[in-house]
Amino acid sequence: MRVLLVGSGGREHALAWKLTQAPSVSDLHAAPGNPGIARLGDCHPIRAEDAEGVLALAHSLGVDLVVVGPEGPLVAGIADVLRHAGIAVFGPSAAAAKIEGSKAFAKAVMRAAGVPTAAQLAIARPPCVLKADGLASGKGVFVCRTQPELDRALAAVSAIGGGLVVEELLEGSELSLFAICSGGDALALAPAQDYKRAFDGDEGPNTGGMGAYAPVPGLSEREIEELVATIHRPVLAELGRRDSPFVGLLYAGLMLTEDGPRVLEFNCRFGDPESQSVLALLEGDLGEALAAAAGGELGGVSLVTGSAAAVTVVLAAAGYPAEGNRGSTITGVSEAEQDGALVFHAGTALHGERLVTNGGRIVGVTGLGESIGSAREAAYRAADRIAFEGMRRREDIALAAAAGQTYALRP
Ligand code: AMP
Ligand code: GLY
């Protein structure tokens, strides 16, 4: 199978890495890809947002499947453009991607499907959570415990523009649960935890994610299946009823509260950096699974997660999430790889032979181990090898789980 992967981040590098290991995948192309993906397949200088350009490329390469990584092109309708031309796509239509593209739409779908989520509030009064309605790269959500926080959040949301959703503030542990979806059915991947705040101890602003690990200790396979049965499948059924079946990766961002799991958000694509841990653990043919989902039939596909653990540490620019860093030399990537870690490129570029920074999150370093503790040690040991100007990372990724903390659906 010839596969075209759309996107250029760490998530796409992790997808490319797993897809090129799949017996079903004969060659991999990417639009536009990144220097890490270029070592695994052919990168073509077409932007992910350029749906017509991606369509022309897919035709000229004669690809069997297009896998779309980022949410922006999905919400804008890239999957519709490709499907309309008869190309198999792993990624939802614009109508189904609205589950991520509009918080108000996601709330309406959850209400209709009976999926447990944070209550919507009519008035913004602390404590509460404000959410800008549209896509905001993880920067449109404001947790407000005090009036000054709420005042700042209201100003920030009005600067983003568009609608606003106000929610009750939930307390608990967060969990990211991904399922490969075929429209009618869902296949869960290993549960993961993301570290969204910029600084150690969950301080500072929300980011796209500063690190992740999988699997989350304490959750049995039966409980994961229960989550998919009460969250992902009812949403698939509701989107099907609305004539917008969801084909792609449905990401549920959950809070495990005293009253049970509640959905904080849905995303219409693989999470980043979680996918750098989740895909690292996956056994089985990812190409076959994504092609089966794209074809509307998941029956017979099984993907197993081994007993090992994975921990991903993001190395970010000094000013991330407010600003990125461009053009600084990155050293030590091959040394980190020689240590046995996976280094996924997120915001890198090549200046001639020189690997340089090109974004906010620069690389993700994933360590594997028999336990979360040993995976964590492997990730940080390898991350110590890498350097660039202003490099910043969190030191507490997977720390609690490595120290023995476990998680439960109903704490
Ligand atoms: P979202 O983009 O909706 O996942 O929100 C980003 C982050 O904001 C989440 O990962 C949570 O840490 C936090 N958050 C979102 N909604 C709530 C809520 N209702 N209660 C508490 N925290 C929330
Ligand atoms: N890591 C959070 C996200 O992908 O949205």
Task: Tell me the strand percentage band.
Answer: 25-35%
Q: Overall 3D geometry?
A: globular
**What is the CATH superfamily of the largest domain?**
ATP-grasp fold, B domain
CATH class of the largest domain: Alpha Beta
Helix content: 25-40%
Number of domains: 3
CATH topology of the largest domain: D-amino Acid Aminotransferase, Chain A, domain 1
Q: Any idea what the radius of gyration is? A: 20 Å
Largest sheet: 5 strands, parallel
Estimated structural class: alpha+beta
Taking the alpha carbons of the first and last residues, their distance comes to 45 Å
Strand arrangement in the largest pleated sheet: 3-2-1-4-5
Low-confidence stretches: none
Bound molecules: adenosine monophosphate, glycine
| Mean pLDDT across residues | 96
Query: Using DSSP, what is the number of strands?
Result: 24
Tally of DSSP helical segments: 13
CATH architecture name of the largest domain = 2-Layer Sandwich
